[in-house]
Design goal:
By secondary structure, the protein is an alpha/beta fold. It has helices spanning 11-14, 55-63, 80-94, 117-130, 145-153, and strands at 19-24, 28-33, 39-43, 102-106, 134-137. The protein starts with 10 loop residues before the first helix and ends with a helix. This is Rod shape-determining protein MreB.
Length: 154
């Protein structure tokens, strides 16, 4: 049976993938499902049993007890591989990784004023590698009610 229609199906009603706000901090990653505003906080510190691939990561791991890719004072991400592993683990733990989500990424508050395009690009690439269908950057310290309404209907 062939089904055709001239009417557009409202995307927000039939969309399966969630929209997730990811707020980065030095030691935590906060995930918020935009539709129901349910929050989940995950650790942004790699545990000791993490598989490390490159020489740089082995060196960084030797000199720090835990690898913290979001804790550097001058750059939002020090190690993109570790950041990717942390985001994958957080999405899996909160149960929002079944479908390719739309991720709204908010960097650490200290970078909101003077973040560079290269740093935004790195964050965007990390979110896409994690499995995001779309990535948006949010460069304000807090979500306002107007922002919630916009992203709930987008």
């Amino acid at each position: 049976m062939n089904f055709r229609t001239n009417q557009a199906i409202p995307s927000s009603r039939f969309r399966l993938s969630p929209t997730i706000l990811v707020a980065l901090a030095d030691t935590t990653v906060e995930l918020t499902n935009v539709r129901n505003r349910q929050r989940f906080v995950a650790s942004a510190i790699l545990p000791p049993d993490t598989q490390i691939r490159s020489d740089w990561e082995i060196t960084a791991y030797r000199y720090s007890e835990n690898l913290q890719p979001f804790a550097h004072p001058r750059t939002p991400v020090t190690n993109s591989h570790a950041a990717e592993m942390i985001l994958k683990r957080a999405l899996k733990e909160c149960g929002l990784s079944q479908f390719a989500p739309t991720i709204i990424l908010r960097p650490q508050p200290r970078f909101l004023v003077d973040i560079t395009d290269a740093e935004l690009s790195t964050l965007r690439e990390i979110a896409l590698k994690v499995g995001a269908a779309r990535v948006a950057m949010y460069l304000k310290p807090e979500f306002s009610e107007r922002d919630w309404a916009y992203f709930e209907n987008a």
